Fold this sequence. Notes:
The complex is a heterodimer of chains A (about 130) and B (about 130). By secondary structure, chain A is mainly α. Chain A has helices at about 1-25, 35-45, 50-70, 70-90, 100-115, 120-125. Chain B has about 130 residues and is mostly helical. Chain B contains six helices and no strands.
Amino acid sequence: MTAKLALGARALLGLIFLVFSLNFFFHFFSMPSPEGPAGDLMKALFMSGYFLQVVKLTELTGALLVLSGKLTPLGLLFLAPVIVNIFLFHLILAPEGLPVAIVLVALESFLGWVYFERFRSIFSSPTAQE
Amino acid sequence: MRYLLRFFARFGLSLILILFSLNYFFPFLPLPPFSGPGADLMEAFAATGYFLPLLKLTELVAGLLLLSKSYAPLGVLLFFPIVVQINLFHFFLAPAGLPLSVLLALLEAYLVKQYFYLFYPFFFPED
């Protein structure tokens, strides 16, 4: 049962980021432009010339990794800081997008819980090499 | 020898991170104010009200984790996206600060290499 849910969560998380990051580069559907402080931030990030681009590239890579199945934990690592920021951005600056942000947090957390054993190595102490 | 090098890399990076992140919350370092295109982006970040505190808090936590031998790999992982962005920022918008950011990148790269066997399962799972 968990395996099926995990598969669905992986597919959903991967597809959402895949579609939206590709849309940033290839514009196959239009998103409503954010207003106010949210819009200012997005504009400033875009004007930097690299920041938004790098983030979208990270989203694309993370999405592909999550969809891959074999390297899903790596994809989850890539997407984690992105999702933290998407959530805070919508929480504080653009509450109308909060439902989607919460869904992303839920998917990432659920998959993090499913794959938790795979993350254990980061928390293990470096061996006596040091 | 290797032990000393890794020790100093860990503590050096940790010191820089802790100093600069604490400086954000309690300014004590005489740093020149931002100017030029970099300033616009920093102002936009500051205007959000949450981004810079989050970033500096993450830096502080990473710096503290690096002090502990057991949790240093986690600190390395937390700092990784930050060091990428710091270098991109200085490379594209504020080349004057590149030397320090390259130093951070070198320290981080060295620590990643030392701890890579812990990150290995992410890239090459056995099953």
